[in-house]
Fold this protein.
Amino acid sequence: MNLENRYDFVFVFDVKDGNPNGDPDAGNLPRVDAETGCGLVTDVCLKRKVRNFVLVDKEDMDGYDIYVKEKAILNQIHEAAYKAIGAESELEEKGSKDNGDKKKRKGSKDSVSDARRWMCKNFYDVRTFGAVMSTGVNCGQVRGPVQLTFSRSADPIIAQEHSITRMAVTTEKEAESQSGDNRTMGRKHTVPYGLYIAHGFVSAHLAQQTGFGESDLELFFRALANMFEHDRSATRGEMTTRGLYVFKHDSKLGNAPAHSLFERVQIALEDPSKPPRNFSDYAIEVNDADLPQNVVLDSRFCIPEIGG
């Protein structure tokens, strides 16, 4: 079923004694806004967890494969698209020695269009988030109907550093240097507690272009609700979805600016004099009493269930 409504949503999650999204340019420290001290989690980090949930939930069902996944070779997927649409002849190798095994980058206009539709039909993350598929064999570009902002913590966070010990070494040389003690020291960074808020948008117009429908929307919100349960690791500590507030517009174009809806979800510390260490330290208030005309909180997806 086609998507006939615009959606805007607020996604709230927390982390306890873990690193929600390490920064590889800063020794894998938790990401932080340098000016405010608030924690950050990138949009691509959340999208990765959505993709992983879909792989677990759908288990290789047709139409729910994932384009950007571990160990994927994207140009090989592009070639598979051309073979599937019957444009295999456009995969002929160039004759130049300089190009070696490289394939033609530019297919015909019709082939690129057909390949793009095939990718949207078969890969959930392409028709949801979009993708640039013009590397190697050209399958075009897709603007995804679902977009997420960076997540930002409600209050400044403190990144703690912990020394850790492994009772083993990697090489014989290390063992000899320690006279058989065989210990390896390391570092681990955690956030004692942080409550993060992300904003998201679903465009019905772009959904029509990619084939993103009502069942895809339901799967996406189900992924946000459950993805942390299937993404456990010692590094990430305890991560939990705490709130999902979905505003449904009564049209494709929308009936109110997104920011005016996001501002209706207010999050504040119960006791500002104490550092937060649990979700119960916060109060969340949602003003749904006087929503703009033709906008409702969609109770099908909200966590906790609210509105109608």
Remarks:
- Residues 94-98 have pLDDT under 50 and may be disordered.
- The CA atoms of residues 59 and 65 lie 9 Å apart.
- The helical segments are 43-58, 74-84, 109-122, 124-129, 172-177, 204-210, 214-226, 258-262.
